[in-house]
Specification:
Layout (H helix, E strand, L loop, with lengths): L1 H26 L8 E4 L2 E4 L4 H6 L3 H12 L3 E4 L2 E5 L4 H16 L9 E6 L2 E6 L5 E3 L6
Antiparallel strand pairs: 1-2, 2-4, 3-4, 5-6, 6-7
The structure holds zinc ion.
């Protein structure tokens, strides 16, 4: 009989464990590592398509943002993105981190679960976690 009780406690512990893992997963996210390749005077971000997926943003908007911030032409090629000129992986990481702050994180609660809406040419960030609505900090929404 004692064994059965231990099994039960073990089961409860497993449930608790999986719950807290889930909470962590939805509370914040991690950006994928930047995978960059150079060819002549061009930079290819080989895993570009992973970023809009994780960020839950339109890939065209994300590409436009990178292109404007780097001030170079960029083009999507399947899952990859091509940028004119040589860029370090750190340049991409830095820009993605700014993107998260300016286009993703709720200014009220810090949740990344937000969406962008537009009214009268003004972009708003609406938080799905706390319901706050704020004007978007970034320029390229
Ligand atoms: Zn919020």
């Amino acid at each position: 009989m004692g064994g059965r009780k231990e099994e039960y406690v073990g089961l409860l512990k497993r449930i608790e464990g999986s719950l807290s893992e889930k909470e962590q997963a939805s509370g914040r996210f991690e950006l994928p590592p930047v995978d960059v390749m150079w060819e002549g005077q061009k930079t290819f971000l080989r895993n570009f398509s992973d970023f809009p997926k994780v960020l839950r943003r339109d890939p065209d908007k994300v590409l436009q943002y990178l292109s404007k911030e780097f001030a170079v032409p960029a083009e999507r090629m399947g899952d990859k993105a091509m940028f004119v000129g040589k860029r370090d992986p750190d340049d991409f990481t830095r820009l993605f981190n700014i993107y998260v702050k300016d286009y993703l994180e709720c200014p009220t609660c810090g949740s990344p679960d937000t969406r962008i809406s537009k009214a009268n040419r003004i972009s708003f960030l609406t938080c799905e976690a706390c319901g706050a609505k704020a004007t978007l900090k970034g320029k390229y929404a």
